[in-house]
């Protein structure tokens, strides 16, 4: 089974996360940041990855450590659950419209972390979530999952819509990339023979 369970504790956050790549998109999320809970629930639903996530963070400071550390742990869980990556499609791409917004995510489970993030978020705060942390979250996921990740806001005006389209397009692109190619189950999709 392609599953992972990680507990990470620092002086700033305590996070417990478990994922199942071959799930049904079920989510139990409690991070202390309402907007982040909403985004991670959408991520689970649209990726088909079952997620159980709890986080106790230093929200008396702000959401920075909570959001960034959630990205770190999600990236580590993805890397662990993917194992040697045999049989996966490796690449994924999805464009998601949300009302006036269009966001495209393209990713490669390459073993080489790199983030390209092109977005303009008009609003700085959504509840107790600092919107600038969106980039930090995806950078942490990319770095720790060893994923090349390109997120591009094609256009959009509403910050909630833009970030939601990012999470949905990321989830749908990831769903493509982690799928097993039934005709090449033992193959690693790399001319080098390793990802």
Automatic annotation (TrEMBL):
- Please name the pathway: Amino-acid biosynthesis; L-histidine biosynthesis; L-histidine from 5-phospho-alpha-D-ribose 1-diphosphate: step 6/9
Q: Which Pfam families match?
A: IGPD
What keywords are assigned to this protein? Amino-acid biosynthesis, Cytoplasm, Histidine biosynthesis, Lyase
Reaction(s) catalysed by this chain, per the record, are: D-erythro-1-(imidazol-4-yl)glycerol 3-phosphate = 3-(imidazol-4-yl)-2-oxopropyl phosphate + H2O
Kindly indicate whether the keyword Amino-acid biosynthesis belongs to this entry: yes
The compartments listed are: Cytoplasm
Q: What is its EC number?
A: 4.2.1.19
Q: Name one GO molecular function term.
A: imidazoleglycerol-phosphate dehydratase activity
Query: Which EC class, in a word?
Result: lyase
Please verify whether the record's keywords include Amino-acid biosynthesis: yes
The record's listing under PROSITE patterns reads:
IGP_DEHYDRATASE_1 (PS00954), IGP_DEHYDRATASE_2 (PS00955)
Q: Hey, which family's this protein in?
A: Belongs to the imidazoleglycerol-phosphate dehydratase family.
Name listed for the protein in its UniProt record: Imidazoleglycerol-phosphate dehydratase
